Amino acid sequence: MKIIILGAGQVGSSTAESLANEGNDITIIDQNPILLERLQEHLDIRTVVGFAAYPETLLKAGVEDADMLIAVTHNDEVNMVACQIASSLFNTPKKLARVRATDYLEYPALFNLDAIPIDVSISPEQLVTEYIADLIEQPDTLQVLNFFEGLAQLVAVKIDHGSDMDGRSIEDLLALLPKVQMRVAAIFRNEQLIKPDGGASLQADDELFFLAKKQQVRDLVKVFKKDYQPYQRLVIAGGGHIGKQLAQRLEQDHHIKIIEHDESRARTLAGELHSSLVLHGDVGDANLLKEEQINKTDVFCAVTNDDEANILSAMLAKRLGVRKAFSIISKASHVDLVEGTSIDIAVSPAQITIGTLLRHVRRGDVVTVHSLRQGAAEAIEIVAHGDKQTSQVVGRRLDELRLPASATVGALLRDGQIFFAHKEIQIQSEDHLVIFIANQQDVDAVEKLFQVGFEFL
């Protein structure tokens, strides 16, 4: 597939790397030649220096025969105009754009062929808000990913020393919770993948991924965590779009305080929120955090636009006794920097956004894509089509699938009913399957497996 990416920032460069590694023909446009040179040093891609919305720049990038345009510059208006030009002048088949401003997103009628021809608009702020809210609603998890329109969740959890499952097997887990339906997708121990068969022994500090129905996730998490407690008291550092949306979603069931440094913005938030307490102050002020009893708070969530402020305030809150510290971190280098520090969860907007972008690029009928472990792994929801003659999966049992070694089927959805994977399940046309792929390099092989032959088409 020939794809043009506008913007060589964190999202654009990471998307280019993922798509180039899968054999796509990638051209990336940016005004910063240094960024483009760095990308070309380790990726087999073309680069064009120029203003992304100019027709001449798009022509240099080969827009005339491009299959897709992905507009992820830092400017909403540039992204939208570029999609308009690609459609009006060059009839580009598919156009994806990052749109951050809520003023645009509140009017979805803007994005259609008769107005601004964007096929898919992506709001990083909305995606990040949903991601953090899921982490708070499922306490003591490292990652929570939705599948089957929210009916099932893939959850990452770290096994505590002295928990019910420390030193026991997956078979013991099934015996301990006989009424809970689930599937262990992967076990990582010291960064090494452990095959998740029934006899696999679990150890403290293992990172375990399991798939379960949403309403049963908490029962499962409890057996891996020694002192499991729901989150009740939250402090949100930053009252921007994400901070506001997060408070609006959670304030009905949680006690929320927001710290906002801009007095005018703080007053506006106080008038728009119902039960959340809005404080005017500095998120890095130790005295303020002590006054607000941060040591009795369950989650400190740093969501300002400043990586350094997020990292330092989250570390400070943790040192002052907060139970869990979350921090949004935009720069990839900063994400690596905080690994092993007191910050419990580093949230990367780029990785979350990339998953949504990849859903629209993948081969086959891919419903959902989630990037895991900083892009090293993926979880996808994919639909099986065809029949036994035209498909490599339809009409075959799960143990007959020629999946790569790193790929595991977690569950399938058929006519609204979830079936958790076991070897005797036979795949039918229109089944939705959740597949965990521990090695990102195997994604291409999985997608090819689900493609139908020409006879079906």
UniProtKB/TrEMBL annotation:
Family annotation (PROSITE patterns): RCK_C, RCK_N
Origin species: Methylophaga lonarensis MPL
GO cellular component, one term: plasma membrane
Positions of the RCK N-terminal domain: 1-122, 231-349
Pfam families: TrkA_C, TrkA_N
TM stretches of this protein: none
Gene3D superfamilies the UniProt entry points to: NAD(P)-binding Rossmann-like Domain, Regulator of K+ conductance, C-terminal domain
Keywords noted in UniProt: Ion transport, NAD, Potassium, Potassium transport, Transport
NCBIfam families: PRK09496.1-1 (NF007030), PRK09496.1-2 (NF007031), PRK09496.1-4 (NF007032), PRK09496.3-2 (NF007039)
A GO term for molecular function: potassium ion transmembrane transporter activity
Entry keyword annotation includes Signal: no
Protein name according to UniProt: Trk system potassium uptake protein TrkA
Keyword Electron transport: no
Boundaries of every RCK C-terminal domain copy: 142-226, 367-452
